[in-house]
């Protein structure tokens, strides 16, 4: 499956790449919302994993735009600030699920498996 990971932290991007590529997924890593929207225009993804707190434009904006333009695209929101407001804001913006950072590889894989379409 093709997964787009959006985060401004290089260590998180690399951790996602390492964990998800071991499962056979093709991973595209980008550092912000503008890059993510450009990537979504160019290629088809089975899942987007988006950090909520990023400098220029936050992940909530990315989720809202992606949900309107690609309504069936699964979106997993993640944040190092997993407050009730953060989680509810991400889900209200259109995320399908939420994962708190730091996550374990098992937690990330479980969250991803819940959102990816079954492989045939």
Q: What can be said about this structure in brief?
A:
Helices cover 45% and strands 20% of the residues.
Comma- or semicolon-separated keywords:
120 residues, alpha/beta, Rossmann fold, five-stranded parallel sheet, 5 strands, 20% strand, globular
Description:
The protein is α/β, with parallel strands linked by helices and 120 residues long. The chain has one domain (2-115): Rossmann fold (3-Layer(aba) Sandwich), CATH 3.40.50.2300. The protein contains five helices and five strands. It has helices spanning 10-21, 33-42, 59-69, 84-93, 105-115; strands at residues 2-6, 26-30, 47-51, 75-79, 97-100. The protein has a five-stranded parallel beta sheet with strand order 2-1-3-4-5, with helices on both faces. α4 links the parallel β4 (75-79) and β5.
